[in-house]
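Work Package 4 report. The design task specified in the project plan requires that, given a folded chain encoded as structure tokens, an amino acid be chosen for each position. We show below one input record used in the internal validation round.
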């Protein structure tokens, strides 16, 4: 795994700790991104909603790579994406690397760069 990506991802986690506590991992950050993209703040989400939030996060993160395209928000304000192409066959390690890189990019593009550059 690229050492620079891992260091920058650890900085993202460290930057999130004051608001969300320690022990965050990729899955937890995906959940936070999904909640952020939904835009309604935190509430008690059902298990299905939590899965949908992870899906929203993954689509959002992979959109710049050309895997998904944002379509619209539904009547409940949930974002929907159009599937464009499949990911190549990746090992678990490569998938983790891609998601960490995409998470770093997300925080940079959404003006949370101070999480990474501090």
């Amino acid at each position: 795994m690229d050492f620079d990506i891992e260091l920058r991802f650890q900085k993202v986690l460290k930057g999130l700790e004051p608001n969300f506590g320690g022990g965050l991992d990729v899955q937890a950050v995906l959940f936070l991104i999904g909640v952020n993209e939904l835009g309604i703040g935190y509430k008690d989400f059902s298990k299905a909603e939590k899965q949908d939030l992870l899906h929203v996060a993954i689509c959002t993160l992979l959109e710049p790579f050309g895997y998904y395209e944002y379509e619209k928000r539904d009547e409940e304000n949930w974002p929907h994406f159009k599937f464009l192409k499949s990911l190549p066959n990746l090992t678990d390690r490569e998938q983790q690397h891609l998601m960490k890189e995409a998470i770093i990019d997300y925080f940079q593009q959404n003006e949370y760069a101070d999480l990474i550059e501090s």
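The chain has one domain: 3-112. Validation will be extended to a larger panel in the next phase.
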